[in-house]
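> example.struct
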């Protein structure tokens, strides 16, 4: 039974093979003319076997052959650019020349064109590196356009050692210029809260001044000044933190405000300056309260003296002279005005009202015609207390 099954499978396989063969024969007979036409059809292309783009299947030359001469001429231009001084116009001109050359022979976008442009870019990156080294020696006095060119090439060719080295120098330049901003931002804070950032920045500045690749930049006075100034600012920041803690614990019971030289000392440090100004306001407010208490004491004393004097007058006479009362009221009003002017606790309306009140009392006083010199002397002596 098993042998019978094997014979059936073999017979079926032979039948399938026969059917495929017959199908291929029929297909060939039906499309015989098309197949022959395909192989007989002329192919256009470069038929010059010495050309770079020679096509062995081409039967018709279409004038697209790229000769060694064109490639060699373009390569000579590229080699010349590589050993010349950096000039962005020379690079752009040669790039345009390559594009036009391949476009004129209908090979725009060809492998040969891509190779030529790649060779040009490699040569240009070498030129940019040499130009950057020259700028490092000149302390980057006029490097803005060069910096932009290096960055543009670096973005698309960051694995190229030539352009990477050029970009390295500009990165170091940016790092130096950024230190000023970093340090100034740090000085706005409480030292104790930014101690980690302070130590990190301090380490960066120290490392930058050690001999190494970037150490060459320290030969530039303008860049060296930035590093040294930042280092000095950090040292002062550390000192000001210690000085503030000592100053904050001082006894200022006899001070009426914070001295100007102290404010100036803390001015570059925002957090500390704010604390100093808060203390200044506290001292001024305390002094104002003291003056108010002192004035109240003077007024109270004056009232006691005046009342005592009126009582004495009343004891001497059966009635109190109206002139004495008016003198008393006028001097109190004058004392109030003097206080407001002295303490700058006034506004235009208040001054106007007080002046009107005093003028009215002075008029009554003069009309009365009595001048009490001894009372005026007492008032003056009280104001000098």
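> example.seq
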């Amino acid at each position: 039974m098993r042998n019978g099954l094997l014979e059936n499978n073999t017979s079926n396989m032979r039948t399938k093979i026969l059917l495929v063969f017959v199908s291929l024969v029929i297909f060939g007979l039906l499309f015989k003319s098309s197949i022959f036409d395909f192989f007989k059809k002329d192919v256009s292309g470069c038929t010059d076997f010495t050309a770079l783009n020679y096509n062995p299947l081409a039967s018709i030359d279409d004038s697209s052959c790229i000769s060694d001469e064109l490639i060699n001429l373009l390569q000579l231009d590229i080699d010349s650019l590589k050993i010349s001084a950096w000039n962005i116009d020379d690079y752009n001109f040669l790039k345009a020349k390559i594009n036009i050359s391949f476009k004129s022979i209908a090979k725009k976008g060809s492998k040969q064109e891509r190779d030529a442009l790649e060779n040009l870019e490699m040569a240009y990156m070498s030129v940019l590196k040499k130009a950057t080294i020259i700028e490092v020696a000149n302390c980057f006095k006029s490097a803005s356009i060069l910096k932009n060119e290096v960055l543009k090439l670096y973005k698309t060719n960051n694995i190229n050692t030539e352009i990477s080295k050029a970009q390295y120098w500009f990165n170091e330049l940016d790092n130096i210029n950024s230190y000023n901003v970093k340090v100034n931002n740090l000085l706005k804070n409480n030292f104790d809260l930014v101690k980690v950032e302070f130590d990190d920045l301090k380490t960066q500045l120290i490392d930058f001044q050690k001999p190494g690749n970037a150490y060459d930049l320290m030969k530039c006075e303008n860049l060296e000044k930035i590093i040294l100034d930042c280092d000095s600012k950090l040292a002062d920041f550390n000192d000001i933190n210690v000085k503030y803690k000592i100053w904050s614990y001082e006894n200022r019971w006899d001070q009426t405000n914070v001295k100007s030289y102290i404010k100036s000392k803390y001015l570059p440090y925002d957090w500390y300056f704010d604390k100093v100004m808060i203390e200044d306001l506290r001292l001024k407010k305390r002094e104002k309260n003291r003056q108010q208490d002192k004035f109240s004491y003077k007024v109270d004393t004056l009232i006691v003296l005046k009342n005592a004097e009126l009582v004495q007058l009343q004891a001497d006479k059966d009635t109190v002279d109206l002139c004495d009362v008016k003198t008393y009221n006028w001097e109190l009003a004058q004392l109030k005005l003097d206080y407001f002017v002295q303490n700058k606790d006034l506004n235009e309306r208040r001054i106007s009202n007080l002046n009107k009140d005093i003028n009215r009392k002075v008029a009554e006083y003069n009309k009365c015609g009595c001048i009490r010199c001894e009372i005026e002397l007492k008032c003056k002596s009280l104001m000098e207390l």
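> remarks
The radius of gyration is 50 Å.
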